[in-house]
Structures
1.
Amino acid sequence: MSGTTDEREARVARLNAERRDGARLHFLGTYAFGERSIARYSLQNGLRLLLLTDSSAPVLSYHTWFGVGSRHEQPGKTGLAHLFEHLMFNETKNLPAGEFDRTLEAAGGEVNAATWVDWTFYYENIPSSELALVVRLEAERMQNLVLREPQVASEKEVVANERRYRVEDDVEGAVNELLYKTAFSKHPYHWPTIGWMEDIEGFTTSDCETFYGTYYAPNNAILAVVGDFDEGQLLSLIQQHYGDLPSAVMPPHHFTPEPEQTAERRLEVEKPTPTEKLALGYKAPALSDPDYAALAVLNEVLVGGKSSRLYRSLISEGEIATDVRGSIAPSKDPGLYEIWVSLREERTAEDALKIVEKALSEAMNDAITEAELEKAKNRLELGFLHGMETASGKAEQIGFYEMVVGDAGRIFGQLEAYRQVTRHAVREVARKHLVAARRTTILVRPKPELDEEAA
Amino acid sequence: MTSPYLTNDQILVEESHDLPLVHFQIVIPSGSTEDPEGREGLTRLTARLMRRGTRGRDTRAIEETIDGLGAELAIETSPGFVRIAGSTIKRSVEPILALIGELLADPSLPEGELAQLKRETEAALLELTDSDQSLASMHFRRALFRGHPYGRPGLGTRATLGRIDIDQVVARYREGLAQRCRLVGFSGAITRADAEALAHKHLLPKRTIRAPMGAPPEATMRPGRHLRIVDKPERTQTQIQIGRLASHAHDADHTALLVGNAVFGGAFTARLMRAVRSERGWSYGASSRVGLDRIREAWNMWTFPAATDAPACIALQLQLMEEWVARGIDAEELAFAKSYLVKSHAFAIDTADKRLEQAVEVLLYELPSDYFSHFIERVQQVELAEVNAALARRLPPSDLVLSVVATESELGAQLRETVQPTSTEVVAYDADAAPP
């Protein structure tokens, strides 16, 4: 049962009746979420709660978002947020190593986590009957994690293997890392979330302990819970298990903003791949910027579906590439609009670049058509709906928007923003952001085989 | 023997009106195992060519329609079937089904588009060589199903694609895809009544329905351990698939095998993950699975350690498998596996589309009709002795296939030393994409 505002406030008063200060709840209102609403609460210790009940299936998704990502790291210590994410699944004061995962799996739960530039989040998808278990365990590891050298050493090796899998032995992963390294010279988006290998190898247990003590505190966390649960019961459990956690003083986040890019940056690299690749990164607006929506619409016009401009000119009609993709980083600070092209044999990255530049020039000079605008909006709507199909999908969207733009209600607002985009706005956003001077270009050539080199 | 399920058109519907979204699929039980020898890739080309033009629309118009409606569409070819599937915003359901109806009933199969499709496929073969994980899986299945229709390349190779012409494609469409029955499935914001009406109107015209081909013969497991090295330069990390033929959904011990697999590698805290990743940090992932199909399918385990750790990792995996099969699991592990499988089953059915997929699989793979609906009861009834007997019966580790993507010159000798294989093949990673 959820309730009206009055019912919720009455419930909070009852729940607070015998609680100490840190565990006192505050009801902050609701966000509209389609035909439902997200209830917003906070604990006195700063923990923020976003709750959405949905009884369509007897499951729930429990997300914990921390306001720390790779942007909070320092040169020489890159990858710490991500390594720490791995360590959060280890021993606690009350759980031997391995028991956290084992207990939740025995309860039918799926457990995982992700780290990116602006945040780290942890989630469980679990049968709704296991609500009390997941609250207890998540609160336990937020405050009682134990870090020992053998586990740190083992996870460093796991992360090193993950880096090999995602970056060193993966052409696209390696090139994407290089793209950001080159596009950002000062801002923390310069270094990869997984960290440089030498930094991963150099971490100590002390580094991890300091990181935990600094960033893993209730006032730096958001709980987003979606699914089949009783709101009153969940609030009581949260008070019980998180109420005693002390808040921490978050260090000020000093970083150097990225200076304006005024000239193209271009690199040519060789990789063990059979065909050429092209990676482009244009300096792009942040997720909260009004230009983001228009750029998202333009991206659909350029690469969304087989009728898109670049799919036709590069793949179906041009036949010079096998793959073209575009995406805008949904980040707190301005990120990149990336375009990736995988060429066919005997075609060059320069061939693709000419075609991409022509398409962008057309978008700048002539507005897109009404049909293209409508098509882009329909495709964005479809993508939005896909993200809402499961409790986990909804919880992720809620946590993400609260973390990145400070407003979980923005989810539906973002869809509305896409619907409001005009052809004129798309043209203007292309002119403003997609110019060569704001671009980083990486041309990937196949590495000659060793026997060819020998010859 | 032909399937008792696949002789007539069928419509399956799982309603859910939470979101204005509809998923759909049209499955034709005619797949790549029907490609003639030497013309592998024919079914896939035919299915894809259906999308490249109809009597009333060219390929450009088709794609404009799909994208403009806010829909997506994919055509999948597997050994046993072709599936046209996608999703759409609710208000576009009828127009997208009307389009798919045209693709099915009245494709123009243009010869110029066939030539282009073949070029695209050749390019895709080359692109595939960038994915070590795909290479390991593909070569594992080829080695496991050697000499069997399931071991043939559904995508084709450059050589086989070159032998396919438009007359063969037209014949494959007319005699194969057009005349088979169709399983039509809908999930999401559509009522059963609407789904049936639209399916009959657009997707299920009156036509002669030919009986589907029978299931292919059962594959046989070669005795011994067979190593296939997929040779690719400069690998700092390997991809390893190890397994054998194992289970059939109609085996009395099938569920017991699933329970046993959950203990070994079917959960994040299973033995394999603990030993390979948690204790040694050798691989970011380590898991095992039991496959499902009309015929006996594979059990296999997957890891991807650094090249320097690969021989030791393989040795460990083989040792773990031998111990697991020889000694079985214990009561505590049984309790964990049952709890995990029973409780996590909620996530196999938490969306309408997942429930639809289960209904489709029952028909396509000729599963027992209660395979999913009584899964929980069957798991709960499994006993320890049954699990351990199933492991011993279905997974003798003396007979295995190992597929390893690695650099032969750097690792080949160590791999042979570790595995002591009955046979070894070294295959170039780009063999399928090489000119004939």
2.
Amino acid sequence: MTILRDLSVIWAMINIAIFFLVLMEFRVPMKRLIVYSVLYMIPLIAINLWFLLTFGPTKMAQSLFFIMLLPTVIFYFFLSKYRDGRFLYSFFLISDLNADLTMLTYLLDLAVPAPRYLVMFLSRLFLFPLLNIYAYRRLRRPYLLVQHSVDRGWGAFAVAAALFDILAVRLFSRPDMIENRPDDLVLLLIVIALTLLTNWYIFSALNAQRKLHEMHEREAVFLIQTSQLQLRIEESNRMKSLLAIERHDLRHRMHALYTMLLDGRVKDALAYLQKSDEQIADTQLSHWCKNTVLDAIFSYYFTQAKNRSIKIEADLNIPEQLETDATELSTVFANVLENAIHAVEALPEERRVIRCKCIRHPKLMFRVSNPYCGEIKWSADGLPLPADKPAGTGSRSIAAYCERHGAWCDYKVRDGWFTIQLTQP
Amino acid sequence: MKICICDDDKRDLTALRAVVRQRYSEPACFDNPKGLLDEVADGLRFDVYILDVVMPDMNGIHLARLLRSMDGAGRIIFLTSSCDYAVDSYEVGAFYYLMKPVQREKLFALLDEIDTGITAPDTPICVHTRERDIMVKPNDIDYIESMMRFPNYHTAQGTFTGLMLHRSFKDEMAPLLALPAFCLCGASFVLNLSHISSIGKFDATFHGGQSVTLPRSALPKLRTAWTDYWMDGEGFQK
């Protein structure tokens, strides 16, 4: 029945490879990744199978680090999108989960009275794919979002996951296989349980942190929208009052004009008409685009700019319906405009200008340019640093939005102008 | 360049006609939207439609919408004394929204810009293949890929393989790279930015639906070039 053992080892290795594809992000397209994975797994499986058949399961388990773990770390490191603590934690998390499942199915086989390796084979046949399906449907999205949102602390988590992995594998196979050391069985089960609980806790804590961060962002946007809607209502009421007054005064004006023209006072009549025209212009409510959410943001920040004697040059071709969530996009625009206002208000009044342009074809593209003073410093990943006045804050938030939605953002500095350009996918 | 003006105010119409005639050919003048719509429905087409916005029977925005349904190519310039309709003008793809009274220099600048776009040369290039020489317009090319020192031209008419390159791909493509719509991506790709409908994590997709996988290191530069191309107004917005 050792054939069942060998087949279950191969099956487990294939599913572990799939698990990597499910839970990690890579630098290459999926089709190419699958090809690379197949080309890697075939010799890896062959080497591990040869080792198993030649040296037996005990030696194989004891040598797992060299014949499986180390080459797999190197292989996925070069393909992984992240090459920092995120990669290490992901790797050891996947290794932990699959090692735990491997050990549990092995122990189940020992516990159940049935032909040797039969229960192990059958349980692995179903449980490994089930784990992959669960990971794909339930874990992948939140896990990848957490990796996008949180970029620190992964190293410490990776160390914890690695230690659990080493401890569990060591308890399982050294000095010999666990079935020969029943006294260590309880300890092994405790370590497996602790591994699962610890990883679950780490993930839950990070996910909660991400959700809190998103909630704060949404709250900030709602506050802006609420205040802007209130401003809109006040402005609209003011316009209504002005229009009512205009309607009331119209008859008097017509009569006054009639009298002036009848008396031959043409110049007076023209001056009177000019003044009336200016009063009508005051009743106008300005709109910047058709989308009401973004229009509120633009109105709010353009009013702020106007109050700071900043000239706004805007050409905003934005459709009413957007492919992306307007609320989330408005946070990005709010960050960009706030940065620009902070940068420009430090300049002499004659230099204060912000240029905004947005086009909708072929994709929604948005550009804001402003002059600045001082020096802009850049982070290692090409973002203007928060402490720098011309750049303001919020570039990390914009980067996080781009990461979530597949958008991209460019920053340019040229001839004393700072430009940020955002393109939707 | 064929220009038409539609304004219900006969004085404004006459004045604008006189201004346009100073530099361009005689424009067609309509003092009501229906007259213009009837002509366009009969097959008459203009390069530029200068439309008043506030008209008694039909406002200029609605008129533009009807014109767009019949003629998608003509550029529309709105004339108005009120900016109330500025936001609506985007919905009909207006080229510009000009405030009355019209400044001659501003109008000429807009018309010159349109004229340059219409008459811009799209000089065909000659692609030498083993079977024959093929004349290809740059605007028909989606992208060119160099494979094993042979350039493959992916165009609207199909894919052609040129003769073996005896100099670098970049040098060979220099005439195309001189055009604003073309961008070198990595060492083996030249892409027509105006034909790209989207750029993904690993590839670029064209209007025809086909996509090409590109070197990861070259994608950031391509994204920037593509955005700059459209934002700087080089692209024709449909």
